[in-house]
Amino acid sequence: MSEADLQTNTPDTTTSEVSAETKALVEDNMPQESDEIKHHVMALIEAIKKQSQSQIETAGDMTREVYVSAMRQAQETLKNTGLLLDNQRETLDSSISSLEDTAAQKWEEIVSDMQKFGDRLDRAVNTAWQILTEPETKPTPSEPTTIDITEDSEDPAA
């Protein structure tokens, strides 16, 4: 291939691949360079742009993967936290149930003790009432009555 063929082929292949933005950039910054150098620089800039775009897309994919992974980890953490909270709730429910059972048992004991005390108080009141209301007993004639006379008093007959 001759240099003329290279120059004519290069601009055609690179022109279709080179953006207008890149072409304007090279033309403005390299006005004195040959067309061949300009086209190679344009091709190089386009290759760098494509490589950069590819790396940005890859980084975007990686970022998306990292984000998805982070969200999955967050979901797992929430699930584990939920399980922990469920276990704590079950423990709390069990403790409350135990407390309720103990309170009910103690209440039944108090009621039973009060009932026993009430029964004892009732018997004591009945016994006291019987003692208060029973007829007075008078001494029977079979029992001797004694009168105690003391010698301390002065007898006028003596």
Q: In percent terms, what proportion of residues is strand?
A: under 5%
* Content-based structural category: mainly alpha
List segments where confidence is low: pLDDT < 50 over at least 5 consecutive residues: 1-15
Number of domains: 1
* Largest beta-sheet characterization: none
Distance between the termini: 186 Å
Anisotropy-based shape: rod-shaped
Q: Helix segment count?
A: 3
Multimerization state: single chain
Mean pLDDT, nearest integer?
79
| DSSP, total strands | 0
Work out the radius of gyration.
59 Å
Order of helices and strands: HHH
Helical coverage, percent range: over 70%
Describe this structure in words.
The chain has 158 residues and is an all-alpha fold. It has one domain. 78% of the residues lie in helices and 0% in strands. It is built from 3 helices and no strands. It is rod-shaped, with a radius of gyration of 59 Å. Residues 1-15 have low confidence and may be disordered.
